[in-house]
Specification:
alpha/beta, nine-stranded mixed sheet, Spore Coat Polysaccharide Biosynthesis Protein SpsA, Chain A, 46% helix, single chain, 2 domains
């Protein structure tokens, strides 16, 4: 069987979630799938649990490949390993602590074929411990507007997992995540995919369940890597736009999303040292758009700007306590 869709799943420290994820993938109504799991040297029993689930789906076993890294390489490298091994016409990327509805792949693939689309987008579920919310993604009829929206990160979701993408797009060197970029890696890829895609379409239905309570998820704690990766992302995007001779077109819309990234890092990190080190990040952009932020965000930026790091730490602790309540 020549697979129509390749489903790519990095595996690392997801023992509590991998069984549900795998079951949702093997229960897909679409048959012409290949599943590529990449074991990024996970130290837990995630792979053992995955192989046990595979035994329950004998009809799917021949469609599954498990690729193992001898040492941990990080999410970016692992995604690239899976892409290199894929053979399907389209690619679906799945985080191994998440899961999807049974008809997701079939619905998105049929839409892609019918519309001759490079990318098909769907809505998704945000799964919290005590509630579920449906999040609506946005696709414009104009490809330039889609690219603007993916930079602004407002109406359009920059994650890969609620989308089906032509593998030929991923084969472009521009659309591969550079090794070491393990935060904002989806956003990096999406800007390139949206820039080069000829046609992007939407299915107005939620299929993917994005789990928000995995304590091991890379997005949960903000450390030095997160700050470094944000700087790397924006530097690389600016370089990309310069290469495409469109930097001046998109420069005006980048100030606010840059500052969004900075303020979230300043609020979410536990480290006063990191706040101090990156206090001057995107200072010019801050002047342009400070009025657009909430009172709490403006307060954090004010404290950092005037190097009141002790008070910034106290404000961070207050926000943590408020969220717990």
């Amino acid at each position: 069987m020549n697979p129509k869709v390749s489903v790519l799943v990095p595996v690392y420290k997801v023992s509590a979630y991998i069984e549900r994820c795998a079951e949702s993938l093997f229960n897909q109504t679409f048959k012409e799938i290949e599943y590529i799991f990449v074991d990024d040297a996970t130290p837990d029993d995630s792979i053992e649990k995955l192989t046990a689930i595979m035994e329950l789906y004998s009809e799917r076993k021949k469609q599954v490949r498990i690729i193992r890294h001898p040492v941990n390489k990080g999410l970016a490298y692992t995604r690239n390993t899976a892409i290199n091994a894929s053979t399907g016409d389209y690619i679906a990327v799945v985080d191994s602590d998440d899961y999807m509805e049974p008809e997701m792949i079939e619905t998105l693939y049929k839409k892609a074929v019918k519309e001759q689309a490079d990318i098909v987008v769907s809505d998704y579920f945000m799964e919290y411990k005590d509630k579920t919310a449906i999040i609506t993604d946005y696709v414009d009829a104009d490809r330039n507007e889609n690219f603007k929206n993916i930079i602004i990160y407002d109406k359009s979701c920059t994650s890969l997992w609620n989308k089906l993408v032509k593998r030929s797009l991923y084969e472009r060197p521009d659309c591969r995540v550079p090794e070491g970029l393990n935060y904002h890696e989806d956003r990096y890829v999406m800007t390139r995919l949206y820039y080069f895609a000829t046609k992007i379409v939407k299915v107005d239905q939620a299929f993917y369940h994005y789990v928000q309570f995995n304590a091991n998820a890379i997005t949960k704690s903000k450390e030095r890597m997160h700050f470094e990766n944000v700087v790397q992302f924006w530097n690389s995007l600016e370089a990309f736009l310069l290469e495409q001779n469109v930097y001046d077109v998109y420069k005006p819309i980048m100030a606010f999303p840059k500052m969004q990234g900075k303020v979230r890092l300043m609020i979410d990190t536990h480290s006063s040292a990191l706040r101090k080190e990156y206090a001057g990040l995107f200072r010019e952009e801050e002047k342009q758009c400070i009025s657009k932020f909430t009172k709490g965000e403006r307060l954090m930026l004010y404290l950092v700007r005037y190097r009141l790091f002790f008070l910034a730490g106290l404000f961070h602790s207050y926000l943590l306590l408020k969220n717990k309540r």
